[in-house]
Write a structure and sequence with these properties.
By secondary structure, this protein is α/β, with parallel strands linked by helices. It is 44% helix and 21% strand. Among the domains are: 246-406, Heat Shock Protein 90 (2-Layer Sandwich); 426-545, Rossmann fold, CATH 3.40.50.2300. Strand 3 and strand 4 form a beta hairpin. The chain is elongated and about 145 Å long.
Amino acid sequence: MKHGALDYIVKSVETLLDMPRSARRALREWDNITKRKQAEEDIRKAKEEWERTFAAIGDVATIQDPSYRILRANQRACEVLGVQQSQDLVGTFCYEVFHGGTLPCDGCPAVLTAKDATTHTAEIVHERLGKTFSVSASPVFDSDNRLASIICVSKDITEMKGLEERLRQSQKMEAVGALAGGIAHDFNNILTPVLAYSELIIRGLPAESPLIDMAREVLKAGKRARDLVKQILTFSRQSKQVSSPIQIYLLVKEALKLLRSSLPTTIEIKQDISSEAMVLADPTMIHQVMMNLCTNAYYAMRESGGVLAVSLTEVKIGPEDYTFVIDLKPGPYLRLEVSDTGCGMPRHIVERIFEPYFTTRAQGEGTGLGLSVVHGIVSKLGGHVTVYSEPGKGSTFHVYFPKYLGETGAGEAMVAAPSLPMGHERILVIDDEKVIARLTCMILEGLGYQVTICLDPRLALEQFEAHPADFDLVISDMTMPFLTGAELAQRMLAIRPELPIIICTGFSELINEEKAVALGIRRLLMKPVLRDELAQAVRKVLDVASN
């Protein structure tokens, strides 16, 4: 037996007769042993496979008893909690190791499952880890259908929640964009008479009249409002930006003037604007950079007050300066410095401030886009932004703009402005806004043209169909009831293909420069259209048509 035999027989005549029975018994026992060993092997393999599967789960997984004591934990749980092996977690309470608490957490799915023995899922923010988890707890029953344990799986959804927040912000921006378009159209229609009548008043008053300065201030404010609309459309990506040589110092001073009226008296503004050099940019870009940086400074000082310092100087970047402006090519730059004496920022915040949607403000106090927009604009202009900040010591932003080295046209500034081009041609003006139609008529008649105005595009089309040769030029608004300017132009051009047409628009998604050209429209003007711009456009279109 000690050599592995299953049975033995003492040699005798009697036992020879018992040989078949002993053999059958031995075979049965051997079969049982084989099956038992196979079952044990199957159980071992199944256990190993289960262990490997449990350990390989990518989410945090634990098995707990009904009192929330951990019976088993997978590798991911060890990684998240910073322990070497799962055995270190066995026997501990989940609320102790996960949240550092002494009692089960309110609203925890495991607590709810322990109460009603059903599956529960909830999103839980882990304050210590700074992460959000989707936690699911499911009951496991014993043979008597009693709750034996609870399986908890926690999926890290921090990144997904961030993406959802970005999507919400993106949808908000889309809504802002749609709103901006509507505001732009209506607001530009309002601005048109404000600007145009201000110009006419200035031109009509005697040079010594004290009212001229007042009218100029009205005109200046109107132009500022017009640029504000452009800025809104630029921010919502619905306006085309055109770069040209501009003097930044004028925009910086203008922005500070605007800010002074909105900042509390506890914030002092200091400025050192010494450079009149030029950069190649769109004015709304520079204005937006200034407003966003100064708004950021305001938020840092709004509780305790302080000093907002703004300076503009010329600097030259050489190869030795790459340590702090590594993205810049050597050459001359204008450096805009905006600093505050506010709360400052720790290093880990500074490293993220240019990320889209990142903000340290309370919910509802900002989109987290301000500094991201600054970075995007400056990078687009070939510049660079640096920031230095320490908690309690405020923040300083340096914005480097490439200096414009081309012709500035300064020599032409001394030449008197040429008189406006005039004419005698017949012009049909269509605009459903009576004040704009009358104003356009007044300007054009003042330039010598013969003008017919129409407030209804349908009546204008009827008049044109009856006498298509009576007009040398058509000027139409874009957004009107019954017929848009584009539709009206198409119908008129079908009758008279060579007819020159100018479309004016406060804002419309239905028309742009490319679409206008494709329709045969000679010129697209953005409202509010000033007298000089209208005079130049009309004369140019008529001259091209006559040639």
